[in-house]
Design a protein that fits this description.
Chains A, B, C, D, E: Keywords: Cell membrane, Ion transport, Magnesium, Membrane, Transmembrane, Transmembrane helix, Transport. Chains A, B, C, D, E: It is found in: Cell membrane; Membrane. Chains A, B, C, D, E: GO terms for molecular function: cobalt ion binding; cobalt ion transmembrane transporter activity; magnesium ion binding; magnesium ion transmembrane transporter activity. The structure is a homopentamer. By secondary structure, chain A is an alpha+beta fold. Chain A folds into two domains: 2-285, 2-Layer Sandwich (Beta Polymerase, domain 2); 293-352, Magnesium transport protein CorA, transmembrane region (Methane Monooxygenase Hydroxylase, Chain G, domain 1), CATH 1.20.58.340. Chain A has ten helices and seven strands. Chain A has helices at 51-59, 74-84, 88-95, 152-160, 170-205, 210-229, 232-240, 249-314, 323-326, 330-351, and strands spanning 32-38, 43-46, 63-69, 102-105, 110-120, 125-135, 139-144. In chain A, strands 2-1-3-7-6-5-4 form a seven-stranded mixed sheet, sandwiched between helices. Chain A is rod-shaped and about 120 Å long. The first copy, chain A, starts with 31 loop residues before the first strand and ends with a helix. Chains in contact: A-B, A-E, B-C, C-D, D-E.
Chain lengths: 355, 355, 355, 355, 355
């Protein structure tokens, strides 16, 4: 539905900016806070702790990753916003779940928002969730709409001290999260690629009309994906250019790598559009060709029998004087004429290459 | 109608620039002036006051919002223009209701023009009106074609001192008005999104030919919307870049936010175009598929009966000597041949996958 | 015809640049010179004066507008070129009537060339003429292919001292002429808009095949218009940027206004292209839908009668033993079967939603 | 054929750059050298002289134009290359006849390559040849694939001392040659324009299927032309920008003029693409409309007769008891029913607007 | 298959960057190292040597080309990476075989990755392989997925000291390899060009439906090719701009030449897309035209016989009183009417231009 791309604006049009109103579906009953405190030597995870404890952790000397699951509770956002001196517009943006991916640079923090797509194999569907990241000097705060994310491998790397993640700053952690999100796009793209291949095969083997609806739905999905991911390109390019002092030079090189992946995602989406257009074209042409073949065959049959029926009609006339009717072999003669007519037409059609 | 996009130029072609001629429909009988005088401590609204009183308010020490409903009276515009030293071309632009959105920066004022769209739910239609804003250091003047606007929430925020509006300058008030206008676009877009969804559903369920006309009308509406909103992007980008000293640094951050919304509006319009094209394509293909199915079925019926009729014709011939006619079971034999022929054709068509 | 867009190049390919050869149709028998001498206090028009007198006027202390109607006489151009030291390439360009709009800046003069379109209501057609302007410090020279132009209001403003035209320099006069030309484009666009609306209405009411040809012709016209006006955008942008010292700061503001109009013209042309494509699509779909409806109805009629004819054929067979034929109510029985068959088919088609 | 756009790469893939291998068709038996030695006072042409003499001329104090007809002899190119210290890559490029138009600037020479198109009226076809120009301080060397070119008017201007060609340097001569080549494109475009007009007329008058193939061929030609000429734009823009010191300021103004022509060529090609697409669309729609009209008429005829035939069939049944058959006016009654049925159907179809 | 464009991301999503995991198909059993040690005087090739020996060669004073066939063994990459201090992300990129072409510039080395396409004539198919180049001051390392490449002519030039390759640095060797890869694209393009020509010919001669599938497959191939080669443009432009100090000025000129070739490749691909679209259009129109011709002919035959059959039906009616039946020449009269009807219809259809 087109509604998927909409901003539920009626609810808030004209309200004061920075008014904290959650726009979107509430996906959790309450908000869960998770804190991971780490430095090169140790890592301390805190599951589901309360706000006061979480903020205390953040003020400690170590790097801290504060993850917030659930963004429907404006009080939570306001409390965090106040603690970290986050601009009211940023707080508002965290609450709105129909943001375009964007990067906003403030004096003491960076705000990154991007869509996290997850493929649930058991349900064979894609879940989309908005992830907001606030990066300050020593703290990274991530806001998710719901529990469950694509960050498990990042948590494991922190725990098991794999790679450079523990030894680097929060900017590297931000990179790790963004990278995990972008890497997951490829999983989604693989699903779509497989479905395009299937539809193409079906189109060649057995072009049923319902393929049309499935192609349409897939095309719609690709349009939506493109619309959501497209602005990410600039966001990550800005991170790779190291526009903000919060991103260190070594981390910028890693963002350059994510940037390459984003461009690859966009390229793949573009080529999927081309491929889908091609499959649709192929489908319509194949359907139309098949239909034409059917019509042609049927028309040839009809056309052959119409003159024969005419001949039969002629000898069914009741004129008193019709010499042929009296002939000994009149009947055979009539059948013969019919046979010859049919044969003549068949030869003619064959010669014309009509079947 | 294409006429909607036209500039009624014949009326004025070649006239001296700055000649004040109202171009557009006169929507009100007379001009209504409303003044809201405010500072951080108090707000004083003046409904429908006369010109002299209004200009006196504007010259006072407090921030003033002068709203002009009705732009057909050139004398009013000329009087205001003279008082605020507004360039003749700007005065002319205020009077012409087919302006492209634009921002013009003069030494002592900014001129912003943008289209205000309102959805009237009771009449189920969209009203478009041109809004011109003149921003000087202490005064904001807004010109509307008619009474009724999307600014009610802004007036309430001023009255009830919500947010930072009372404590900020006129540039923030300008932001609040522009933001209200842009936020309302989302309401319009929601309407269009809903209609696209409806048409898509109808196309899948029951693709009647009249959907074609409705799709065409909707596409036309989207083209018109795009044409009108497109240039707004640059206008608001310029405001966010803080090109003029009349826009303060803190307000520029808010305009950056409106800029994001404008881009989101354009993205949505673009994806609506894609969606509409997709629905149209689906509609045409579905119609064509259905028609083909009908034709195929009918042709199959006709094709089966034509050979049968031929056989009946043969045994309706009046040859004197036709052995079959004399047979005891001749009639049954003929019916049998017919039955077998019909069956043979059905089997053949079935095998070919034609039904 | 495509020829409309052609440069009659064969005539001159390879000739020395600056060779004065008139390329285009000769529209007048002789060249008419008109001079308007003016300053803030007075204006002196000279109709159809000779070359020597005209050049004397130009050398006077007042601002002078020298208008040349007819550009087929190379001697006239050469004489003016020599007097004002105009580059041979510019002289050549004045003579060629298939120029792209362009602005060329030389040390002591500006050369502007643009297409002047006029709608002749009595003949219901559009006339296109090339206008060249040479702007020096105190003189503006305009070259037209023929008498009759869109400059009458400008002449009146000069005569009646309306607006700032008499008090400003020749650059303002140049602006006034360019503005008059661009304003006239809107008149042409209105004609085209009206025709698109008419064709759309006819398409919805009664989609005759000849509409196709009219749509095609209109599309061709819009393509031609776009091609001719498109480069004007850059020309006027350059004037508004005040690239040359011959354009004063105050006049540049006015050119900025013309620039807005030009962009509006281009936007309108673009949306006309979209609208025309939409109407064409609608037309083809409507025609195709109508045709399909006709075919379907006819095929349904044929399909209902074919089985009935078959039944009649069966009872027209001449078998000696056909029990039904001997029945008392055989005829009624046969008619009954036919009626039931027809009814059955009608119910079936109805149920399938085929009519 | 697509082959026309190919680079015969297999022959040379991976070879050392600067390896002199002629790629293309050999069009002449041997190489012809022509030298024109000139200054403001005199011009000395040397037809078909040998290499040593040619190089001696080039070393003289006067401006020299060395024209080489035939580029298959790598020894000739190598000799010239050595004499003028031409980079091996340039030598290689001269020999490859599938170059994109390009400009390469070296310390002591400019290398320009562009396609020369000639229309041979007697054979009604277009010949394409690659022209390479090497411009040094006092010498211009032109390489052509074959004898015969579009430079005859330039030679005449040199001979007869027309225009400024004899008094200017070799850069002006280079301009004159490039201008001659570009001017000739218009001749080719005129041919194409005429053919588009013809095909459009035929499409409106008598849309035969073979027009489709001619439109396709023309479109292919326009695509090829566009591909070959497109890069020329940048080449000539660079010359007009006077990027190299080998181009004098006065000559750069002339190249600016050629640049305008090139843009006009591209504009015309673009509008030809639009026109061709329009004619194709018109053709397909017209064909489809005509076909539909035919089918409709035929189907109407068939549909009217089918019920009549059914009635005839009814009264051809052999039931013993069929009261109508015994009526005095039974036959007339039957004919009457048939007539009324036919009339009824005609009126119905007419009312539906089907013919 | 769309899968061809996929990044096998599921395997690695979220892993630590720089984690060496081979992504792609393992094409060789083990890794083969080849070293060519050279300077202006001598060249020493080492086939299939071990790692330690290879690295010793690389540390020698002469230029060294280390070629690695097989990239599935992460230990090999890690060893080389450690020796040459290659960034972990670069090592990771070498292992992933679905990279976009890119150039990455580090302090002491350049990383270039590009796709190598080879046409295997014996198998009539194209093989695609990823080639990574690491260019340091004295060493060039090339990584290939498998043995067999397009570099044989480069090896020969090294061996036989042809051209400047032995006397130049490793940057020139890098140029030679990139040039060999790009030159080979033309071989692939020639194959595609030939296939387009064949399909076009078949479309004109005998437009069978299976051409549709072949056109679709070819279009898909061209889309894939375009996607893979497109980013190469920027890569080689950056090399030609000599952004890195590792590329010398003289070599940059050679990269400029490769850049021209790359643009030519892209131009050719673009024109192939246009050509393919044209052939597809032609194919569909031709098929549709042919089908229409068939239908029209068949319908004309049917339409002529239907009225004749009706007449026969009339005289087959069994009315007691039917005067014509008793006429002496009644039968002839009926046949005459039929003949005239047929003739009349034929003349009518002919006059209408229906056949």
């Amino acid at each position: 539905m087109a509604g998927r791309y909409r901003h539920s604006a009626a609810a808030k049009a004209g309200a004061s900016p920075g008014t904290l109103v959650h726009i979107g579906e509430q996906k959790l009953e309450r908000v869960f806070l998770t804190v991971i405190d780490y430095d090169a030597d140790a890592v301390t995870p805190h599951q589901d702790i309360n706000m006061a404890a979480a903020l205390t952790c953040c003020d400690g000397p170590r790097n801290t990753w504060l993850n917030v699951d659930g963004i429907h509770d404006t009080a939570v956002i306001a409390r965090i916003g106040e603690h970290f001196k986050i601009h009211p517009l940023t707080q508002e943006d965290i609450l709105h779940t129909a943001q375009r991916p964007k990067l906003e640079s403030f004096d003491h923090y960076l705000y990154i928002v991007l869509p996290m797509l997850r493929y649930l194999p058991e349900e064979a569907r894609v879940i989309s969730e908005q992830v907001s990241l606030i990066l300050t000097d020593r703290v990274l705060i991530s806001f998710q709409e719901s529990t469950g994310d694509v960050f498990t491998p990042v948590r494991e790397r922190l725990q098991k001290n794999r790679g450079r993640i523990r030894g680097s700053g929060c900017d590297y952690l931000a990179y790790a999260l963004v990278d995990a999100v972008v890497d997951h796009y490829f999983v989604i793209l693989e699903q779509i690629g497989t479905r395009i291949d299937e539809l193409e095969e079906q189109t060649i083997d057995n072009p049923k009309p319902e393929i049309l609806h499935r192609l349409h739905a897939l095309k719609r999905e690709v349009i939506g994906l493109r619309k959501r991911i497209w602005p990410l390109r600039e966001v990550i390019a800005a991170l790779a250019r190291q526009d903000s002092t919060l991103i260190h030079r070594e981390t910028a090189i890693f963002f350059r790598d994510v940037h390459d992946h984003t461009i690859q995602v966009m390229d793949t989406i573009e080529s999927y559009r081309d491929l889908l257009a091609g499959v649709l074209e192929l489908h319509l042409s194949t359907i139309s060709n098949r239909m034409s073949e059917v019509m042609k065959t049927l028309t040839i049959i009809a056309t052959i029998f119409i003159p024969l029926t005419f001949i039969a009609g002629v000898y069914g006339m009741n004129f008193r004087v019709m010499p042929e009717l009296e002939w000994r072999w009149g009947y055979g003669f009539a059948l013969g004429i019919m046979g010859l007519t049919a044969l003549g037409l068949l030869v003619y059609f064959k010669k014309k290459g009509w079947f």
